[in-house]
Write a structure and sequence with these properties.
heterotrimer, A alpha+beta, B alpha/beta, C alpha+beta, A: alpha+beta, Arc Repressor Mutant, subunit A, Glutaredoxin, four-stranded mixed β-sheet, 7 helices, elongated, C: alpha+beta, Alpha-Beta Plaits, Rossmann fold, seven-stranded mixed β-sheet, 18% strand
Chain lengths: 155, 431, 535
């Protein structure tokens, strides 16, 4: 797959930021994921050619970082923090609630592609636990009521 | 000065409206320290001030910042300063606050630091999940560049300094400085062997110093007020203001700024509003982020600084204070952390790669009531095999809490073996 | 010699003092004392990864154990490889490495030469306290034309990845995922198909990477290694022939800094297969009416050849007797052919060229013969095949002796025409070729692995070929029949064994005259700088 013209322009300028082209790899992968929602094998090939890297290296990097996805997520990608503070402040209840309400398990995507749900390790927001990240945005100090309201607001 | 009278130095701007803008920052006296440094001081003088201030790294290790910079070769020659904004130690959320609310403070500190070490291109490595802070920092850098506070000949001084912001992509291990450098070079974030240390061979093979956001945010203060004033804050060898992250079972979790050395109990019971539920007494505190040994309730009369906590057998770490009331099952808590480290182990070296998963399996069976007494000694023995034997500190970061929780709360682990259930009485989740 | 001797440092390892060049790591320093520091990821020809942690040692004044592979010997350093601290760490590493390992030694090809198995025996505790679920990975992954991968046996030492990055620079392999899910592999749809892929299996310390052509064929403890050299190209890589029950089962590289370091190409690794596939020539053959061939005694072949060559020389002049020598033949064989042609009064000796592809940056040479240099130096090669064929056609050559070459098979109609113009064709070969079939006399030669011999590689290094198999039927190295026939034409006595044959051949070549077989040892001798043997 070839990124759109607009993304390619952003990729060009990302590469220009670094004297060592390889340093642009994470930025380029972020840009591709922003466009498509995930990074396909074909994207990895394209990036490898663009940055003159071995494809195995690119795929190795994609597989190392948890933010890079290799399958399409839902339109609203819900990531619930599960690490200690969020756990003792009730994230398990949030996950249970979401699994029931959305009808999917941890790691699943709703059949309509609207939501995906995954538990993740600490997002650095323990002071406002329990919390979740939906796409780019943090939602903090969650309660079941706030969670329901948020879900309803997501189209 | 009592802590009640303490006026925040690092967080003084965060409640100002529009605190992220350059104009607001300048109104409160911002960038005066940078101007002073680049126009009135030599880099050596700045470095000497930082050394004299006693500033110790706020990322976790508490290493003296001036000394760390001093390891870089003097004089011209390519070298790098990297700002570690990959805040990801569970229980820690102070750097994010600084970046989100006062990005120019961070930037000013970073520019002065670059000047002090002779670095003309600084990199800010920010964790990928922090999308808002990243955008805020990007904007701040743009503003600073437009105002000649970054870029060519800063404020007409002849000092050039470019700033590049680099986004991570989800890996706790990238908070380790050599893993961070690997990641910054576009690779898997796997820690490097040391030696060579980054001060000799760092980013792109050049001498490099990696410093935490909060550490760097102290630098404008030191330049502006002078090292002896700064060294008067806190306690001997533990100087300066500190951001404490309070989370868990407290009424008012959040980031609190006080001098180094504030009593832990004062933090919890006076500033963070005390425990969440009156019916649930304090069980334990993790004082420095998830990687440090735990303090049981009866050992919490300690001062929150590097040396006092070391004397108490734990560490200040990142000052991520996780407060646990007696609803917490320690076995469950440790299993949670073991899972975290197993998930975040880079997989490079044997003891950490294999040991983390083994910990998880043992703790899972203990938690389910399927464990044996010998499992407790096995957990301790595995910690001996891991700690000190891995490439990077992640091995220690998991081995230390395991050893500490099992030792301090051995009776709870034993209870799981003997009674196949928790000693702790779970409380309804407070959501 | 280097301009200056490197600085030396003296240190103590396990209470023994040792002096090594500055920069030597502790594994190598200990090795000089005969102390083994166990390791998996360290390989002297690859960069230091330091990931297996097996080589942890206890160094005085250092609070933590240090890995010996990345620690350089320093003056006064006191290293303990057997202190409680080091032993406990090492036992820990062994136990950790095995918790997710399938422990399937009985069905694993690596068993018998598995470093994990050996170190577990020597440095483990003999048991495991692990009783949980192992992490599962893909097994039987087809990585490329020659390599199969078992993800569960893999200990993630990354030697194979570093080999493809640093030696072949082909970068097919990578590390994927992280934590205990970390796995080695290729990019989806790509293969591990570089020309040296088999070396990844050689350096794999466990049974994770195996060579398809060898796996499940033989237990390694049944194999006897013969230290020889590869005959696949002009490099002459040092190899071991793994032999059992009169058969070569595999060829593996043998270290020689001056020639092939620790590597061989896949083609060389599999070059023994041709000797098992071709139709062998085991008896002397003579032509009968209608071009058919019939068996005869080898001694009868000598007589017939000597008589016919003598007769042609008398009738048409010795110059009409010519030879085709070969880069596939040994120095002694090439010298033997030259001797026979000269004894008959001839001088014309052609050398066919066998080139394919290009020289690469590592080992592979486009010259696919092992001893072209010998053919020129000792074999008297002095004309091209084209010149020879022309000479035959115009009647200048009437008798031809062919050594280990199939010119009729390779030069087609032109060669067949030339054959028609010859009064006598004698061929010496190990297999039945078109040339053998069209010969008046054909004599059986021993094949690769069945005989001693010497080859001179393209660098001018003379090295020994060694036998591990019994010569096939009535076959011999060619120097024997060639000198037998020459002796019947008035030549000197025939050498009784290989060493005599070598001495005889060497004595006739100024560049070789100082040499004897013991001096060549396992690593050969450079003819340009006599002292350049290994080590």
């Amino acid at each position: 797959m070839i990124p759109s013209q607009a993304t390619q322009l952003q990729i060009d300028s990302a590469i220009k930021e670094y004297a060592h082209t390889r340093s642009a790899l994470l930025a380029v992968l972020h840009l591709i994921q922003r466009e498509r929602g995930y990074i396909a094998v074909e994207d990895e090939s394209w990036v490898a050619a663009r940055l003159d890297l071995p494809p195995a290296e690119v795929a190795g990097v994609v597989s190392f970082y948890t933010m890079f996805r290799t399958k399409p997520p839902g339109r609203h990608h819900i990531q619930i923090c599960r690490t200690l503070t969020c756990q003792i402040r009730g994230c398990r209840e949030l996950v249970k609630h979401l699994e029931k309400k959305l009808g999917i398990q941890d790691g699943g995507v709703t059949p309509d592609g609207r939501y995906s749900l995954i538990t993740v390790e600490c997002l650095g927001s323990c002071g406002t636990a329990p919390m979740m990240q939906v796409n780019d945005d943090y939602h903090e100090n969650l309660t079941l009521e706030r969670l329901d309201a948020l879900l309803d607001s997501m189209k | 000065m009592t802590s009640q009278e303490y006026r925040p130095l690092l967080l003084k701007n965060i409640h100002r409206p529009d605190s992220t803008s350059l104009s607001a920052y300048r109104e409160s006296g911002g960038y005066k320290a940078l101007e002073r440094a680049v126009k009135e001081m030599t880099p050596e003088q700045v470095l000497e001030e930082v050394k004299a201030s006693g500033l110790r790294g706020r990322g976790g290790a508490g290493f003296p910042t001036g000394m760390k910079w001093g390891f870089l070769p003097k004089g011209p020659g390519e070298k790098y300063l990297v700002l570690n904004a990959d805040e990801s130690e569970p229980g820690t959320f102070k750097d994010r606050l600084l970046m989100e609310r006062d990005p120019h403070l961070v930037l000013e500190g970073f520019l002065i630091s670059c000047y002090a070490v002779g670095c003309t291109h600084g990199y800010i490595y920010i964790r990928g999940e922090f999308v808002d802070p990243w955008r805020i920092l990007l904007k701040a850098v743009e503003e600073a560049r437009a105002a000649n506070l970054a870029g060519k000949s800063i404020l007409g001084s002849g000092f050039d300094c470019e700033i590049t912001i680099y986004r991570g992509a989800g890996a706790y291990i990238c908070g380790e400085e050599t893993a961070l450098l690997e990641s910054l070079e576009g690779k898997r974030g796997m820690p490097r062997l040391k030696p060579p240390f980054p001060a000799q061979v760092g980013l792109y093979g050049k001498p490099t110093s990696v410093n935490n956001v909060e550490t760097i945010a102290n630098v404008p203060l030191i330049v502006e007020m002078g090292s002896s004033w700064y060294a008067g804050i806190g306690r001997p060898k533990n100087t300066g203001p500190k951001l404490y992250c309070l989370s868990g079972h407290v009424r008012k979790p959040g980031v609190y700024e006080f001098p180094l050395g504030i009593p832990l109990k004062e933090l919890i019971f006076e500033h963070a509003g005390g425990l969440l539920r009156e019916t649930r007494p304090l069980k334990a505190v993790i004082p420095g982020g998830s990687s440090v040994p735990i303090l049981p309730a009866d050992k919490c009369d300690v001062l929150m600084d590097f040396d006092s906590l070391a004397a108490a057998g734990t560490m200040l770490g990142s000052a991520g204070v996780i407060v646990l009331d007696d609803s917490v099952c320690i076995v469950d808590a440790l299993l949670n952390l073991a899972r975290f480290y197993a998930h975040e182990s880079c997989g490079q070296c044997t003891p950490c790669r294999e040991g983390c998963g083994w910990y998880v399996q043992i703790l899972e069976r203990l938690e389910k009531g399927e464990g044996r007494s010998s499992d407790l000694d096995l957990l301790l023995d595995l910690s001996d095999r891991i700690q000190g034997n891995t490439i990077c500190p992640l091995g220690d970061a998991v081995a230390m809490p395991v050893r500490s929780y099992v030792t301090v709360f051995r009776n709870e682990f034993q209870y799981h073996v003997d009674h196949k259930k928790c000693l702790a009485e779970p409380a309804p989740a407070p959501v | 010699m280097a301009d200056s001797t490197p600085e030396q440092v003296t240190l103590t390892i396990d209470s023994q003092s040792v002096t090594v060049p500055a920069g030597t790591n502790l594994i190598e320093a200990a090795r000089t004392l005969g102390i083994e520091i166990p390791h998996f990821c360290y390989h002297p020809r690859l960069s230091i990864a330091g990931n297996c942690r097996m080589c942890l040692v206890d160094i005085e004044k250092m609070p933590k154990n240090q890995i010996a592979c990345s620690t350089k010997a320093a003056p006064g350093m006191i290293v303990r490889t057997r202190s409680d601290k080091a032993v406990k760490a090492r036992q820990g590493v062994m136990e950790f490495l095995l918790i997710n390992h399938p422990l399937d030694c009985p069905i694993c090809d690596q068993a018998g030469e598995c470093v994990l198995q050996d170190f577990s025996y020597h440095y483990g505790t003999g048991g495991s306290r692990f009783e949980g679920q192992k992490v599962h990975h893909d097994k039987n992954v087809d990585l490329g034309p020659h390599i199969v991968f078992d993800g569960e046996r893999c200990i993630k030492c990354t030697r194979c990845i570093r080999f493809c990055d640093e030696v072949t620079h082909t970068h097919e392999l990578g590390l994927f995922s992280r934590g205990d899910h970390t796995i080695i592999g290729t990019f989806p749809g790509k293969e591990l198909d570089n020309a040296y892929s088999g070396c990844t299996a050689d350096i794999c310390p466990v049974g994770a990477l195996t060579v398809k052509e060898f796996r499940f064929k033989q237990r390694v403890w049944f194999l006897r290694n013969t230290a020889s050299i590869c005959a696949g190209c002009a490099r002459g890589c040092n190899v071991n022939l793994g032999i059992n029950e009169e058969r070569i089962w595999r060829i593996t590289p043998r270290d020689n800094d001056a020639v092939n370091q620790s590597w061989i190409c896949d083609e060389g690794r599999l070059s023994f297969q041709i000797y098992q596939q071709a139709e062998r020539l085991g008896r002397a053959l003579t032509s009968s009416a209608g071009g058919a061939t019939k068996e005869m005694l080898v001694a009868s072949g000598y007589e017939q050849a000597a008589a016919t060559l003598g007769e042609i020389a008398r009738k048409h002049g010795g110059a009409t007797v010519a030879g085709i020598t070969s880069g596939h033949a040994t120095v002694e064989e090439q010298a033997g052919l030259k001797e026979l042609i000269e004894r008959a009064g001839g001088s014309r000796i052609a050398l066919p060229v066998h080139e394919r592809g290009d020289d690469d940056a590592l080992l592979i040479r486009r010259d696919k013969t092992a001893n072209t240099v010998g053919a020129r130096l000792a074999g008297g090669a002095n004309c091209t095949m084209e010149d020879l064929l022309t000479a035959i056609k115009i009647g200048k050559v009437r008798a031809l002796v062919v050594l280990r070459e199939d010119f009729l098979g390779e030069f087609g109609a032109e060669a067949m025409t030339a054959r028609g113009a010859l009064d006598f064709l004698m061929t010496l070969d190990w297999r039945v070729t078109a040339t053998v079939k069209a010969s008046d006399v054909a004599l059986p030669l021993s094949a690769y692995g069945e005989m001693d011999g010497s080859f001179i590689n393209f660098q001018g290094r003379i090295q020994l070929l060694r036998p591990g198999l019994t010569p096939y039927e009535e076959s011999d190295p060619a120097w024997k029949p060639l000198l037998e026939i020459a002796s019947r034409l008035g030549g000197a006595a025939v050498p009784k064994n290989f060493r005599e044959a070598f001495r005889w051949a060497a004595s006739r070549v100024p560049e070789l005259s100082h040499l004897d077989t013991p001096a060549l040892g396992k690593f050969g001798v450079s003819l340009e700088s006599p002292a350049s043997g290994q080590g």
